[in-house]
Write a structure and sequence with these properties.
Layout (H helix, E strand, L loop, with lengths): L1 H11 L5 H18 L4 H29 L20 H26 L1 H16 L13 H22 L4 H24 L1 H6 L5 H5 L1 H18 L1 H5 L3 H5 L5 H13 L6 H25 L1
C-alpha cells in the first residue's frame, strides 16, 4: 500500500501545500481583527477546497510539463512523477480532475454563504488550475505564472476568506493579500530562475527567459522585501503585532536574495527554494498570529 501511495504523495508536492493554507489563515485572523468574528465552517471548507485546488494544479503541472517536454532527464528540480515514470500522464491528469471535483464539493457551502462573488472566484480557480500549464494559453508558458500566484494565492485568497467570514470588504485584506501573495511568488520566481536554461530549450517563456537572469534576480529581491515594507501599514493602523512579528522572517528573505544573487542558476537553487518556502510560511503564519493578537 505504501508503495502505491508514495508516488501520489510526491505528485501532490506536500511542501508546496502551505501556499494554500497560509492565505486562509491570514484572512481568518484578519476577520477576527476587523470584525471579531470567525466562521469555523468557512475555515474548514476554505482550507480543504484550497488544498484540493493546489494539489490539482500540481498534478496537471506534473503531467503537462512532461508532455510538453519541459520536464526531461536534464531536470534539476525536485522529482516529478511522470518524468520519472512513477505514474502515467493519464493517471496524473485523472487525479487532477478528481481533486478539482473535491474542491467543488467543499466550495458549495462557501458559495451558499458568499454568493455570486465566491462562485465566480471558485469557477476561475478551477479553470486556472488547468490553465496554469494546459489549454490554449498556458499561463506558466507565457510569463504570467507570477501574476497568477500573486493574485490567487494572495490578494484573492486572503480577500475571499475575509469576505466569507464578514460579508464585508476591507482595504486591510488587500494589504495582507499583497504580502502573502508576494511571498508565494518568491517560490515561483526562484523556481523559474533555477530552470531558466531548460525552459529556454522547452520554449517555456517565464520572466527570466523573456527578460534575462538579472531581471529574475531583481524580481526575487523585490518580492521578498516588499511584504516587509507593506507591513508598515499595520503599524500605522495601530496593529503593532501584525507589523512586527513577520520581521522574524527577514533572515529567510536575506538568504534567498543573497544566494540567488551570488550563485548562477542551477541545482544549488533548490536550497534557496526551500528557504523561500520557509519565508512564505513563517512570514504568513506570523502575520496571521499578529492579526489575531491585535
Amino acid at each position: 500500500m505504501r508503495s502505491l501511495l508514495r508516488p501520489w504523495l510526491l505528485a501532490f508536492r506536500p511542501k508546496t501545500l502551505t501556499a494554500a493554507v497560509v492565505p486562509v489563515a491570514v484572512g481568518t485572523c484578519l476577520a477576527k481583527a476587523t470584525h471579531n468574528t470567525v466562521d469555523w465552517l468557512v475555515v474548514g471548507c476554505a482550507v480543504s477546497g484550497a488544498l484540493f485546488i493546489q494539489m490539482a494544479t500540481n498534478l496537471f503541472n506534473d503531467a503537462l510539463d512532461f508532455k510538453k517536454g519541459s520536464d526531461t532527464g536534464d531536470r534539476i528540480g525536485p522529482l516529478r512523477v511522470t518524468q520519472a515514470g512513477l505514474l502515467s500522464p493519464r493517471s496524473v491528469i485523472i487525479g487532477g480532475v478528481v481533486c478539482l471535483g473535491m474542491a467543488a464539493v467543499f466550495g458549495v457551502p462557501l458559495i451558499a454563504k458568499g454568493g455570486i462573488p465566491i462562485a465566480a472566484i471558485g469557477v476561475l480557480s478551477l479553470i486556472f488550475a488547468v490553465a496554469y500549464t494546459g489549454g490554449p494559453f498556458p499561463l506558466a508558458y507565457k510569463g504570467l505564472g507570477d501574476v497568477f500566484v500573486l493574485l490567487f494565492f494572495g490578494l484573492i485568497a486572503v480577500g475571499a476568506t475575509h469576505y466569507l467570514h464578514t460579508l464585508d470588504m476591507a482595504w486591510a485584506a488587500l494589504v495582507a493579500g499583497a504580502q502573502v501573495g508576494a511571498w508565494a511568488a518568491v517560490l515561483l520566481a526562484v523556481n523559474n530562475l533555477r530552470d531558466v536554461a531548460t525552459d529556454i530549450t522547452a520554449e517555456k517563456k517565464t520572466l527570466p527567459v523573456r527578460f534575462g537572469i538579472g531581471f529574475g534576480r531583481a524580481e526575487i529581491a523585490v518580492l521578498a522585501i516588499l511584504p516587509f515594507v507593506i507591513g508598515a501599514y499595520w503599524w500605522q493602523n495601530a496593529q503593532p503585532m501584525a507589523a512586527l512579528l513577520p520581521l522574524a522572517a527577514v533572515p529567510f528573505a536575506a538568504i534567498v536574495i543573497i544566494g540567488t544573487q551570488k550563485n548562477a542558476p542551477g541545482p544549488i537553487y533548490n536550497r534557496y527554494l526551500a528557504k523561500a518556502a520557509a519565508l512564505h510560511f513563517t512570514g504568513g503564519a506570523l502575520l496571521a498570529v499578529g492579526l489575531w493578537l491585535d
